[in-house]
Design brief:
672 residues, 15-stranded mixed sheet, 18 helices, 29% strand
């Protein structure tokens, strides 16, 4: 009979000592180019071995995995060790066997940082390891069965999408695009060759591809984009409703973003895609054939803004379901971003309004995920001008940028009417970046790094996370030097995009324990997504520093409150989980002591003002675009009610959040 102690005590030869036969190599390609590799081989006993290692700005995993298959092709054993993306230790073990027993003869057990579980079933299921890097283990089983039960829960099914002819090394080949349903919010696509082997999977942001096939990656991505576009267009046809009549909202408690006050008993009339009238109930004439929405007991607000996202096509639906009708994309592929914005605006893809920032970094081992890497003033200016010509509103610089290029970038951007923000380039402090003319700072950690220039040597590396985690709690926020810095930000009109929610998972998350933000929504998620949340994570932390990390995260929130108290402009950005992360970001501001009405103002009219779009967006007022949401509750009294979005209108078109969430396997919020 299997046992978890047996798993942990079993001795296997390490991958390094096994004789590798027929090693297959895969290149891991990120936006800026090759970033690492995966290799796979089978030893003389038939055990399969995998190793992956890749670098993303100093982050990235190094994982080894061994898989032993049974006669039916299902794994009977898995062992996974190494470090994850944030360099936290990984250890995971799995064992399965069939026994002579009526009813439930198949048993499996596994142990990882989040789980220690044994199950019994009448037939095998496929165990989804938390840190699985195997290739061509799951896929053959899924092709054979078409539908496959998953452990700990869920079911996967496979869809053949299309065959594509490619030319590799002068020879013609046929690869097949497949889609797996059941892993998450949307289908996971992968490519198989003529023998059915998985040869590529991922996206333009990150892809694993069989060595030798790298030149055809653009062709594969184009075919994937076509599939995603068709799927997105179908959802748009089914889930976007364009009212044929005037829409009237009455009996509303309305959030007046301009004054940051609640107005009771209000009526709002929408004609087409514009707000035509706003006034007390009874003061606005209502056409006899109007579509009337009764908002009694609920709150009517302007659409929310997330000011720090990195969109994919599929993120748009979840943003709208959460009431986020406008976003600012702060780094992405240029061609995809422009197409995505056009599709969102046209309604051929479900998504919010987009403001976009052009990403610029310098070359080097820690360069950001972009092909826009500049090393001369001329190239820097040329890229700023290109972004301006393409309709971008902002430039975002990154950590590896040569500090000598900051001034020409800012001067050119301001001349073209573009804002400049970013990570503080390595070698500068936040104060120096602001004095050079930066309009905005991304991420609260850089506010702390400003005071440790001599001791934190390289902010391109993960030290920009670990140093604040270890030391932020020790910084006296009331000291003269901190107060002078805050005063500088206020005097210069510098905007702060703190992304507290991202650092919550980094500093508070622990293996096997959900961070508080994830715990709020995990039960609504598809099984595989929920399982990922349950794994916890965060930065590696020694037991002796556990409380320090938590105290430093508290200091992050206190810094944001200190900025607010001093009159520094704050915008609500997340750099995280689309839609849900913004709700958590606003909760964190409230918990830090910012009044709820001001939190709502930050997420609506203040964001529109920063992006110079407040004449048409950000508040519910006559003449503005009809971007508004209904919340089942009073977020001015209980900020967590902002999660309870039950109605969304963007550009006069109507979306049902429950239907949007249902399309991606997320449960609608429980009615009151």
């Amino acid at each position: 009979m299997l046992s978890l102690p047996g798993i942990l005590l079993g001795v296997m030869l390490s991958a390094a000592t096994l004789h590798a036969q027929d090693t297959v190599r895969y290149t891991i390609v990120m936006a800026k180019g090759p970033a690492g590799y995966t290799k796979a081989w089978t030893d003389a006993s038939g055990a399969r071995h995998y190793y992956t290692e890749w670098n993303d700005r100093g982050r990235g995993p190094a994982i080894s995995q061994t898989v032993v298959l049974g006669a039916d092709g299902f794994p009977v054993r898995m062992d996974i060790t190494g470090v994850d993306y944030l360099k936290s230790p990984v250890e995971e073990h799995y064992l399965a066997e069939t026994v002579t027993q009526a009813g439930t003869p198949w048993h499996a057990a596994w142990r990882n940082d989040a789980e220690s579980t044994t199950v019994a079933r009448p037939s095998p299921a496929y165990y989804l390891a938390m840190n699985d890097i195997s290739i061509d283990v799951f896929e053959p089983l899924l092709f054979k069965a078409q539908r496959l039960a998953l452990l700990p829960q869920g079911e996967a099914r496979v869809e053949k999408v299309r065959d594509v002819s490619v030319t590799v090394g002068g020879a013609s080949r046929t690869l097949t695009l497949n889609a797996v349903h059941g892993f998450g919010f949307t289908p996971n696509t992968f490519w198989t060759d003529e023998q059915g082997h998985n040869v590529a999977f991922g996206s333009s942001w990150w892809m694993t591809i069989r060595e030798g096939l790298e030149p055809i990656q653009p062709q594969l991505l184009k075919a994937q984009a076509s599939y995603d576009s068709a799927r997105g267009a179908d959802l748009a046809r089914r889930l976007i409703r364009s009212p044929k009549k005037v829409v009237v909202f009455r009996n509303a408690t309305l959030f007046d973003a301009d004054s940051a006050r609640m107005r009771a008993h209000r009526t709002v009339l929408v004609r087409g895609n514009r707000i035509a009238a706003v006034g007390p109930d009874g003061s606005v004439p209502i056409p006899s054939d109007a579509e009337v929405v009764d908002v009694t007991g609920r709150t009517l607000l302007p659409g929310l803004w997330d000011m720090h996202v990195h969109l994919s096509d599929d993120d748009g639906l979840q943003h709208l379901a959460a009431g986020v009708t406008s976003v600012r994309d702060l780094a992405n592929d240029i061609d995809e971003t422009l197409k995505r914005r056009k599709a969102f605006d046209a309604g051929t893809l479900i998504g919010p309004r987009m403001s976009i920032a052009g990403f610029i970094d310098g070359p080097g081992p820690y360069a950001g995920p972009t092909k826009v890497l500049v090393s001369t003033a001329d190239s820097a200016r040329a890229w700023v001008n290109r972004y301006a010509d393409l309709g971008y509103q902002q430039i975002k610089v990154y950590s590896s940028l040569d500090t000598a290029l900051v001034a020409p970038i800012i001067a050119t951007a301001h001349k073209r009417g573009l804002r400049v923000s970013g990570h503080v380039p390595n070698g500068m402090t936040a104060e120096e970046f602001v004095r050079a003319g930066a309009d905005e700072l991304q991420h609260v950690n850089f506010l702390f790094l400003n005071f440790w220039r001599d001791s934190v040597k390289d902010t391109r590396t993960p030290e920009r996370f670990t140093a604040p985690a270890q030391r932020a709690a020790l910084l006296d926020l009331k000291s003269d030097r901190v107060q002078r810095f805050i005063q500088l930000l206020r005097d210069r009109g510098t905007v702060i995009d703190p992304t507290l929610v991202t650092f919550e998972s980094m500093l508070v998350g622990r293996p096997g324990v959900m961070d508080p933000g994830s715990a709020e929504v995990a039960d609504r998620m598809p099984p595989v997504i929920r399982r990922g949340m349950a794994s916890g994570g965060g930065l590696p932390v020694a037991d002796s520093l556990d409380q320090r990390y938590r105290d430093s995260y508290r200091a992050f929130a206190e810094m944001v409150k200190a900025m607010y108290d001093a009159g520094v402009k704050i915008v609500a950005g997340t750099d995280g989980f689309s839609g849900f992360a913004l709700h958590r970001e606003l909760e964190l501001y409230s918990a830090a002591g910012i009044p709820n009405l001001d939190v709502l103002r930050i997420a609506t009219i203040d964001a529109a003002r920063v992006m110079k779009k407040d004449r048409e967006l950000g508040s519910i007022a006559p003449g503005k675009f009809a971007d508004l949401i209904i919340v089942d509750g009073r977020p001015d009294l209980h900020i967590a009610d902002i999660r309870r979005v039950v109605y969304v209108m963007k550009d006069g078109k109507v979306y049902d959040p429950a239907a949007l969430y249902g399309a991606v396997g997320v449960a609608a919020i429980t009615p009151r």
